[in-house]
Amino acid sequence: MDLSRAAAEALDAADPLAGFRSRFAGADEDGPDRLLYLDGNSLGRMPLATPAAVSRVVEQEWARGLVGSWSQWIGAATRLGDDLGAGVLGAGPGQVLVSDSTTVNLYKLLVAGATARPGRDVLVCTKDDFPTDRYVVAGVAGARGMTVREIDAHVDTGLDLADLAAALDERVAVVVLSLVAYRSGALADVAEVTRLVHESGALLLWDLSHAVGAVPVDLDAIGADLAVGCAYKYLNGGPGAPAFLYVRRDLQEELRSPIQGWFGQRDQFAMGPAYEPADGIERFGVGTPPVIGMAAVEVGAGLVAEAGIGELSTKGRAMTDLIVALGDEWLLPAGVALASPREAVRRGSHVTFAHPQAWQLTQALVDRQVVPDFRTPDRVRLGPAPLYTRFVDVWDAMDRFRALLADRSYEAYPAERARVT
């Protein structure tokens, strides 16, 4: 592999996604001191079309249309869900709903799934899953008198299928797993995980937050049961953007949301005395949808769909391959270790490195106009977003990382993280 900067420039020149960069705020900046943003797996850049989309909702639909605009807002959660399903998730119409936060959606589907498996009293997750997933699983189990089986998952390489198989039996109701591990980027073996869980008779609930928009997700084709995910990482929907949930069509009538809100009611405007769940995916609605936030999600998700998940995945693998190769050449000799799967087919679109002073390195990188993020216990995580990150951005970021290790200036930074209040 040619690791020269000229080779990275050549990859950019041949990049079929190059035109998308100019459609994001700040992504088209150039120069030796420019900001190198490698945290798109945490918060995506803002599409330039987003302010106008939000302004349209605020200044026209709300300010002028007032309550009359509900005629176009009322079905927005399912309409945008269908668009997201078709363009990004590989899901047919009527199976995706945009609503609430990832945590709330996870809670809704987990309780619904557990209720639909009476006589089964175990929930399964991994010890290295994203905290909110583990917290929700523990909370649901405690409230329902169930047991949690937390599977050991390697912090760098992810879930071992043998460990999953050993945790599955006739007592398991729902298994909660991340498609892409938040720390290492390890990519789950979708087909084999699905087979094992379904053979046990349990339901499988995927968290797609670190996958959607960067790696192929084909929910209908893999026979997925349930899924949730956020829209502010690779989908570029902005901080606090509404999340989404997926329920396979043939499961929808079997499942019932534990939060009986009026947007999940069969005839919500009848204002009836009793709750009766709506047909289809709308039964998983709760309260009034976040109309303004959905306008931003529509822009970001639309760009991902326009680019095509195949092209995005191909570029994401190529960029992370470059990070791994440059890490081997420049970082490993300085005491940094790869903390992600080496093979691209086993990775999402981010790469993590381990170092005893990772917190100090992260802060020093930020001061040198490189934005990664820190993950416990000692990880620096680099997340190039294939929709707008260039190969030369990756190369220059790794070059600054190399220089930082060489001059050891990171050692002057505080060794402990400051609390954010």
From TrEMBL:
GO cellular component: cytoplasm
Residues with N6-(pyridoxal phosphate)lysine modification: K233
Catalysed conversion reaction: L-kynurenine + H2O = anthranilate + L-alanine + H(+); 3-hydroxy-L-kynurenine + H2O = 3-hydroxyanthranilate + L-alanine + H(+)
Matches recorded under SUPFAM superfamilies: PLP-dependent transferases
Binding locations of pyridoxal 5'-phosphate: T102, T103, F130, P131, T132, D133, D207, H210, Y232, W262, T288
Any one biological process term the GO annotation gives: L-tryptophan catabolic process to kynurenine
Cofactor(s) the protein needs: pyridoxal 5'-phosphate
Associated pathway: Amino-acid degradation; L-kynurenine degradation; L-alanine and anthranilate from L-kynurenine: step 1/1; Cofactor biosynthesis; NAD(+) biosynthesis; quinolinate from L-kynurenine: step 2/3
GO molecular function terms listed in the Swiss-Prot or TrEMBL record: kynureninase activity; pyridoxal phosphate binding
Keywords per UniProt: Hydrolase, Pyridine nucleotide biosynthesis, Pyridoxal phosphate
Pfam families: KYNU_C (PF22580)
EC number of the protein: 3.7.1.3
Keyword Coiled coil assigned: no
Highest taxon listed in the record's lineage: Bacteria
Cited function: Catalyzes the cleavage of L-kynurenine (L-Kyn) and L-3-hydroxykynurenine (L-3OHKyn) into anthranilic acid (AA) and 3-hydroxyanthranilic acid (3-OHAA), respectively.
NCBIfam families recorded: kynureninase (TIGR01814)
Subunit-level organization: Homodimer.
Family designation: Belongs to the kynureninase family.
Name the UniProt record assigns to this protein: Kynureninase
Taxonomic placement: Bacteria, Bacillati, Actinomycetota, Actinomycetes, Geodermatophilales
